[in-house]
Amino acid sequence: MADLTTEFVGIKSPNPFWLASAPPTDKEYNVRRAFEAGWGGVVWKTLGEAGPPVVNVNGPRYGAIWGADRRLLGLNNIELITDRPLEVNLREIKAVKRDYPDRAIVVSLMVPCEEQAWKAILPLVEETGADGVELNFGCPHGMSERGMGSAVGQVPEYIEMVTRWVKQNTRMPCIVKLTPNITDIKQPALAAMRGGADAVSLINTINSITSVDLDLFAPEPTIDGKGAHGGYCGPAVKPIALNMVAEIARTPEMARLPISGIGGVTTWKDAAEFMALGAGNVQVCTAAMTYGFKIVQEMISGLSDYMDKKDMVATSELIGKAVPNLSDWQHLNLNYIAKAKINQDLCISCGRCFAACEDTSHQAIAMSADRTFTVKDDECVACNLCVNVCPVDDCITMEQMAAGAVDPRTGRTVLPDYANWTTHPNNPAAAKAAV
Amino acid sequence: MHSKAFAPGVMAGRLDPVDLAAGFGDLHPALGDHEAMVAADRCYFCHDAPCITACPTDIDIPLFIRQIATGTPDAAAKTILSQNILGGMCARVCPTETLCEQACVREAAEGKPVEIGRLQRYATDGLMASGVHPFSRAALTGKTVAVVGAGPAGLACAHRLAMFGHDVVLFDARPKPGGLNEYGIAAYKSTDEFAAREVDWLLQIGGIRLETGTALGRDITLQELRAEYDAVFLGIGLGGVNALKVPGADKDGVLDAVDFISDLRQASDLGALPVGRDVVVIGGGMTAVDAAVQARLLGAANVTMVYRRGRDRMNASRFEQDLAASKGVRIITNASPIAVHGNGAVREVEFEYTDDGLAPTGERFRIAADQVFKAIGQVLEGDALPELDGRKIAVSAEGRTSVVGVWAGGDCAAGGDDLTVTAVAQGRDAAMNIHIALMGATAAVTA
Questions:
Q1: Domains in chain A: how many in total?
Q2: Domain boundary among A275, A306, A325
Q3: How much is the ipTM here?
Q4: How far is A350 from chain B (nearest CA, A)?
Q5: Which of A41, A79, A391, B285 qualifies as a FRET site for A142, CA 20 to 30 Å off?
Q6: How many Å from the N-terminal Cα to the C-terminal Cα in chain B?
């Protein structure tokens, strides 16, 4: 069985599955249950400065969207940082860390943008024996209205400044958690790096309104007839998160910056994908909030089975393995030509591929009177929509055409060599360069 | 064990009331809201969906299921009812396993089709429970049409005619409307007086005058109707039954299955309904299954269904055969009755095994019976009817008979399966053709 032990910014954990800073890690009771279930680490829910804690709304703080069979696909929240007193959290962190020395405990922090505030809280966290801190520059609701959370994360200069204060005032590793509510994720990540961050974690939640109550005409979740935007997470945000992780991983200056991947990790496979795109570990929240802590058992068995099959003995072999294959559109091989192929033995004749292709794409699927669906190679551009809408796994596949064959759509012979847009005759820039 | 459970002879009260009521409960209980959402989520919204093609009334099944899934079950009901005004009954009695659900691509994919029938019931029950009748009549045309037979074909025809603005007089020979829905199907398929409630709901369209207890050939003639009305639709069903032509077939206890089912459907107290200890049902169709299963549910200890051909030729669907088996009915195939034995009342029925060509094999056996139900087919009754095609009224694709101004549909008309849903389609389509005949071809465009 593959060794899932992970070392992230010097913090060891028995597996790369951490619980993200969120309700599941708000108190000792939950975190002990998480560790008993097998989680490798937690990022303790964000602590604020000493004094009266924040308060939360007393109505719904979550909203959701669902797929078929009410499978939860996306969750949004308007919960703030911990609403329990600082000293209670610190006492509990210390107690849990003492009892679970092999698990990672990182403490999420959010205090005002003043050096004194950070100077005050860091020694208190250090005293608990926690393994590190994560700076919450991500929460997009509530705290951001008070100049914290994503209000900091959206200004690279602030990120750099606060990160530097933290590094100057503690020996603990410092992870900077980034908000996705920006245009270019590389800028806040670079700022964190300049400030001395040991790692970045991303993504935090996305500004969102999950739905509108069509009787009250109020956004959901609704508090007394009103709604405020919340932070969106869960399986629905995974593609956005993967891209942002990848953007950082493929930027040469940040090639060595550790990344903790967050955003819709629900199964071992999601975790493996984040890791292949450069994440050193993953943080999970929504999946645990949907199914409970036990899901980590599937994540552990699934990732180790996968690594065994791939002859990987350590997670370090997986981390970043897909990064070299990240490219820009202009470098994709235009001589790669594929055609959709429908496996008639698997086809159940639902006709969704036909409707999608006929109504919205390239009219490249034929339908016979007896509901046999076949691809018209002379029309198919291999767009993949039929694959995406087909309800049967592997029924429709994209088959690469061999070099030397003639593409019936264009009448041109498939060329064996690689050629991209930069040199394509239709590219005005390429034409200019040639002259 | 009830004291009368094994008592020989034909008697009432073989079961405790609790067991009796449990047996006659809904065969397919209604889906709850959550179950309906889960079931609806499974529909793939197929292109040119095979389930629609398989439905004799062409209900847009993917659309109505999507309407359920998106929280608008009343819109779903309207989608169903606009094609099939008896969508509520069809949801209960259709052999969906050989129609829409057999065609469902998830049957091909997983052997588990979308539960189309139960979803249809969910939608239509909801609308009917709210008392809404979502259709209204077009401007009155001043035409009046006689519809003979208030079964599925006649009801569908009458409703569609009323929608077009015609007035309808709906005749039926029996005291209650509904035809086989009211008198002819197993009680566990139409619980809580559903057939009667559905007719009441259907008649909310207005413009339909119901004349029950009025039989064609006895109280009215086709000639009179033709003279008095602008058009006539015959949906008179099959009033007669085939005779069992074997020695002893006249003995006491040998009954028509349709009468047994009818009596059962009209009984106010099932506990008062007599049934034999040893019951033999002769036949292999839906009526045979309905009789056999209900005999068991009334407390008959031994019920045997005997069919002269192989199991593959039985008219009862596989689902119905399995239902019978699950209720403890023994099914014997490839055996023909050759005699009914007994001294006054039936004691035994003698059968002979037959090969697949119905040729006797010489191998005989007897089954003890104190009650025998004949379910060997129903036949058209009546004189002075339009020309026949075989043993039923000949009709064109639009339901026209050989007599000008007379249309026919349902079980009395040749062509199509003898199913409720087929009768509805034929009645509806005949109404469309009657409308065109009365109003001219342009009517079809505005209809």
A1: 2
A2: A325
A3: 0.86
A4: 5
A5: A41
A6: 61
State whether B44 and A70 contact (CB < 8 Å). no
3-state DSSP percent of chain B in helix, strand and coil, to 5: 40, 20, 40
Interface of A with B (CB under 8 A): 68-70, 348-352, 354-355, 367, 371, 391-392
CATH 3.50.50.60 domain locations along chain B: 10-25+241-377, 144-239+380-446
Q: Do A348 and B105 touch (CB under 8 A)?
A: yes
Nearest-angstrom CA–CA distance, A166 and B387: 99
Q: Looking at the domain that runs over B144-239+380-446, which CATH code has it been given?
A: 3.50.50.60
β-strands A174-177, A132-136: how paired? parallel
B45 interaction partners in chain A (CB closer than 8 Å): 352
How far is residue B344's CA from residue A264's CA, in Å, rounded to a whole number? 80
More confident residue, B75 or A139: B75
When pLDDT is averaged across residues B285-312 and rounded to a whole number, the result is 96
A154 close to A185: Cβ distance less than 8 angstroms: no
Q: Which among B44, B108, B109 has the least Cβ separation from residue A352?
A: B44
> Within 10 Å of residue A113's Cβ, how many Cβ atoms?
15
Amino acid at B324: A
Domain spanning B10-25+241-377: CATH 3.50.50.60: yes
User: Of A41, A163, A34, whose CA–CA distance to A109 is shortest?
Assistant: A163
Same domain? For A351 and A241 the reply is no
Contact A326, A246 (CB under 8 A): yes
Q: How far apart are CA B403 and CA B407, in angstroms?
A: 8
Instruction: Kindly state whether residues A347 and A282 are assigned to the same domain.
Output: no
- B382 interfacial to chain A (CB closer than 8 Å): no
Q: A334 and A244, same structural domain? A: no
Closest CA of chain B from A263, distance in Å: 26
pLDDT category at B447 given cuts 50, 70, 90 is low
Parallel, antiparallel or unpaired: strands B392-393 and B275-276: unpaired
Same domain, residue pair A318 and A372: no
A305, A325, A345: which is the final residue of a domain? A325
Instruction: Please answer yes or no on whether A352 and B50 come within 8 Å at the CB atom.
Output: no
Per-residue pLDDT reduced to its tens digit, B395-409? 999 999 999 999 999
Number of other CB atoms surrounding residue A29 within 10 Å: 10
Q: A139 an active-site residue?
A: yes
Using DSSP's 3-state secondary structure scheme, residue B366 falls into strand
The reply to whether A75 and A150 lie within a common domain is yes
| B37/A351 Cβ within 8 A | no
The fold of the B33-129 domain, in CATH, is: Fumarate Reductase Iron-sulfur Protein; Chain B, domain 2 (1.10.1060)
Query: Is A69 in Cβ contact with B45 (below 8 Å)?
Result: no
What are B444's two structure tokens?
């079809």
Question: Residues B198, B121: contact at Cβ < 8 Å?
Answer: no
A272 and A396 share one domain: no
Determine, yes or no, domain membership for A427: no
A431 within some domain: no
Give the residue on B whose Cα is nearest the Cα of A357.
Answer: B47
Name residue A17's beta-bridge partners: A282
Q: Which residue has the tokens 């020695």?
A: B247
A358 in the same domain as A282: no
What does pLDDT average to over chain B? Answer: 95
Report yes or no on A373 lying in a domain.
yes
Chain Cα centroid distance, residue B326: 22
A354 → closest Cβ in B44, B47, B105? B47
pLDDT at A1: 78
Tell me which residue range forms the domain holding A368: 329-422
Q: Are A357 and A364 in contact (CB under 8 A)?
A: yes
Task: Specify the CATH number for the domain of residue A134.
Answer: 3.20.20.70
The pLDDT score that the predictor gives to residue B71 is 94
